TrEMBL record:
One of its GO terms (molecular function) is oxidoreductase activity, acting on CH-OH group of donors. PROSITE patterns: GMC_OXRED_2. This is Glucose-methanol-choline oxidoreductase N-terminal domain-containing protein. Pfam families: GMC_oxred_C (PF05199), GMC_oxred_N (PF00732). Residues 257-271 form the Glucose-methanol-choline oxidoreductase N-terminal domain. InterPro entries: GMC_OxRdtase (IPR012132), GMC_OxRdtase_N (IPR000172), GMC_OxRtase_C (IPR007867).
Length: 550
C-alpha cells in the first residue's frame, strides 16, 4: 500500500490544494481524479461546453422536481466535469467573486474568519491579472498561477449590448470584482492569450513533475478509510477495475464538488444515520447535514434573432487558421457569453444585487456532444438573453441510490420551490424586455423568437403571470451547485465542516470545494472555489508547520 502525508480527491479545487501542499518538499502528496487529463480541444475558448455529454461529463440529472424543469418531466440536467481540473475545463471562464456581503453573511452564520477582508488576500494570491491598469489594483493581484484577462476577441454585437445597457439606465462597469460591480461589462476571464486556463493547467501543469506529487488519473474514490477513533487512515479507489488503497498519515482533502463530495462522505459512513442504515452502510458518524442545503443558481431566457445576419454553424476555415496562427479571432473567445451584467431587482438593496444577466450567441464551434441548446429560428442568427437569480432561497438535498460508488446519487434540487425565487426571475424578464426594446437593439434588427409555451397559454404572453408559469416549465440551471457540505459551527444542525474546513467529528478530513458554501456567492463561483482551495492549503500549512504562506 502506498503511503502519503496528504491525499486530495478530485475537482477544481483539488488541483489548487495539491499544488500548494506539494510546495513543501518533505510532504508527499497524492491527487486522484476520476477522469483523464484535460483534452487539448477544451483549451480553445469557443469550445466551452463542447465536451458536455461526453465521457468527460458526469451527466448528472435531478429527479422528482415539482417546480422546475417540468418540460423535462421534472428532471434538470446538471453537467459536471469528470477530468483533471473538474468543471473548470468546461465552464464559460468568467472571473467573478460575488459580492463582499456574501462573505459577511457567511460570518453571520457562525463562520469566523471568512469576512471579505479575510478572504480577499486569497483571491489575490491566485491571480495574475494582465489588465491591472484597467481594474482596481487594491482588489487584484499579479504573479499568481491563474492568469486573468479579457479574451482577445469580442463579437461586434457585444458592444451593442453594452450600449443598450447604458441607454436603458442599467449602466456599465469595468471591474466585476472592484468597488462598483453593478452594470454591464465584457468580463475578465480565466484565460491567457486566447487559451482557457483551468485550475489544472494553471496550478498543476507548471509543477507536474515535482517528485513529491503523484497524480493518478481515471481513479474513482470509493471510500475514505476511518478507524474506530474516528481518524482518517487512508482512501480506497477503483483503478483499472481493481480496488486499491493508499495510506494517509495526516489528512484527506475532498474536493469533488457539491455532488461528489457528499456522495463520498455517505459512502464512507458519514451522514444521516437513518439513510446509511437503510442501505446497509456502517455508520461511522451521524452527521445529518451531509447532502442537505443543496442549491444552485437558476435562470430563464428569451431568444431573439438578428435581421440580416445569417446563422454561422460550425467553424469558419479562415478563423481556424487565424487561431492556429496566433490564438486570436472568434475561436479565442466564448462569443457573447463573455458579456454579463449585475443588477438589483426590486426585492433587494442597491448594494447587494440579486440579478445577473448572461448572453449566448456568436460562439464559433463544432458540437458533436456539448450543451447545444441555442436553437435555430430560420436563417437569421440567434442570440439569447438570460436572467439569473443570484440569491436562491430554495433548498434541495442529495442522497445515495444504493451503496455502489459508481451509481449516481439521487439529486433533488427543489429549485424554484420558494416563490421569492420566481419573483426575482420575473424582474429579470423586465430587464431583458427593456433592453430588447431599446433603440440600440432595434437598430440591430433584434426580434423576439421565443414562442409562447402551450402549458402557459392561459396567460398573456410576456406578462408577469406568463413568466411565473414559464420559469417552472423551461427552467435553466447555471451549474453553480453549492451548499451540500455546509460550513458552520457545531451548533448548526446542518453544518458538515467547521470554519477551518474540517469535517465535524472526524480527525484528518477536510472538504475544499463549492459544497462548503453555506450560501452560494452572487455570481460565477469558480474564483471563490479557487479561494477555498487556497485557504484549505494554508490552514493545513499553518496547522503542521506553524507558518503563514500568504
Amino acid at each position: 500500500m502506498l503511503k502519503y502525508i496528504y491525499a486530495n480527491i478530485g475537482g477544481a479545487a483539488g488541483s489548487v490544494v495539491a499544488a500548494r501542499l506539494s510546495e513543501i518538499p518533505s510532504w508527499r502528496v497524492l491527487l486522484i481524479e476520476a477522469g483523464p487529463d484535460e483534452p487539448a480541444g477544451a483549451e480553445i475558448p469557443s469550445n466551452f461546453g463542447v465536451y458536455l455529454g461526453s465521457s468527460l461529463d458526469w451527466k448528472y440529472r435531478t429527479i422528482n422536481e415539482s417546480y422546475a424543469c417540468l418540460a423535462q418531466n421534472g428532471s434538470c440536467s446538471w453537467p459536471r466535469g469528470r477530468n483533471l481540473g473538474g468543471t473548470t475545463v468546461h465552464h464559460g471562464m468568467a472571473y467573478h467573486r460575488g459580492n463582499a456581503k456574501d462573505y459577511e453573511n457567511w460570518v453571520a452564520m457562525g463562520n469566523e474568519g471568512w469576512s471579505w477582508a479575510e478572504v480577499l488576500p486569497y483571491f489575490i494570491k491566485s491571480e495574475d491579472n494582465r489588465e491591472i491598469n484597467r481594474v482596481g489594483r487594491q482588489y487584484h493581484g499579479t504573479g499568481g498561477p491563474m492568469v486573468i484577462e479579457r479574451f482577445p476577441y469580442q463579437p461586434p454585437f457585444a458592444d451593442a449590448i453594452l450600449k443598450a445597457a447604458e441607454e436603458t439606465g442599467y449602466g456599465r462597469t469595468e471591474d466585476m470584482v472592484g468597488a462598483n460591480i453593478r452594470g454591464f461589462t465584457v468580463a475578465q476571464t480565466m484565460s491567457v492569450n486566447g487559451v482557457r486556463q483551468s485550475t489544472a493547467s494553471a496550478f498543476l501543469r507548471p509543477i507536474r513533475n515535482r517528485g513529491n506529487l503523484d497524480i493518478v488519473l481515471n481513479a474513482t474514490a470509493t471510500r475514505i478509510l476511518i478507524n474506530n477513533q474516528k481518524r482518517v487512515t487512508g482512501i480506497e479507489y477503483l483503478l483499472n477495475n481493481r480496488t486499491r488503497r493508499a495510506r494517509v498519515t495526516r489528512e484527506v482533502i475532498v474536493s469533488g464538488g457539491a455532488v461528489n463530495s457528499p456522495q463520498l462522505l455517505l459512502l464512507s459512513g458519514i451522514g444521516p444515520k437513518e439513510q446509511l442504515r437503510s442501505l446497509g452502510i456502517r455508520v461511522v458518524l451521524d452527521l445529518p447535514g451531509v447532502g442537505k442545503n443543496l442549491h444552485n443558481h437558476v435562470s430563464y431566457s428569451l431568444d431573439f434573432t438578428l435581421a440580416n445576419q445569417q446563422n454561422a454553424l460550425g467553424f469558419n476555415l479562415d478563423d481556424v487558421t487565424q487561431y492556429i496562427s496566433n490564438q486570436t479571432g472568434p475561436l479565442s473567445s466564448s462569443g457573447l457569453a463573455q458579456v454579463t451584467g449585475i443588477l438589483s431587482s426590486r426585492y433587494t438593496t442597491s448594494d447587494y444585487p440579486d440579478l445577473q444577466m448572461f448572453f449566448s450567441g456568436f460562439q464559433e464551434s463544432c458540437f458533436d456532444t456539448g450543451d447545444v441548446d441555442l436553437r435555430s429560428y430560420g436563417n437569421n442568427r440567434t442570440v439569447r438573453f438570460t436572467a439569473v437569480n443570484l440569491h436562491p432561497k430554495s433548498r434541495g438535498a442529495l442522497s445515495l441510490a444504493n451503496k455502489n460508488p459508481l451509481e449516481h446519487p439521487i439529486i433533488w434540487s427543489n429549485d424554484l420551490a420558494d416563490p421569492a425565487d420566481v419573483d426575482v426571475l420575473v424582474d429579470g424578464m423586465h430587464v431583458i424586455i427593456n433592453m430588447a426594446n431599446s433603440t440600440t437593439m432595434k437598430s440591430q434588427g433584434l426580434t423576439l423568437a421565443t414562442q409562447p409555451i402551450d402549458r402557459c397559454k392561459e396567460y398573456e404572453f410576456l406578462s408577469d403571470s406568463y413568466f411565473r408559469c414559464a420559469v417552472h416549465i423551461d427552467t435553466r440551471t447555471e451549474n453553480h451547485q453549492t451548499g451540500s457540505c455546509k460550513m458552520g459551527p457545531s451548533s448548526d444542525p446542518l453544518a458538515v465542516v467547521d470554519p477551518y474546513l474540517r469535517v465535524h467529528g472526524i480527525q484528518g478530513l477536510r472538504i475544499a470545494d463549492a459544497s462548503i458554501m453555506p450560501m452560494v456567492v452572487s455570481g460565477n463561483p469558480q474564483a471563490a472555489v479557487t479561494m477555498v482551495g487556497e485557504r484549505a492549503a494554508d490552514f493545513i500549512k499553518r496547522t503542521y508547520s506553524q507558518c503563514s504562506y500568504l
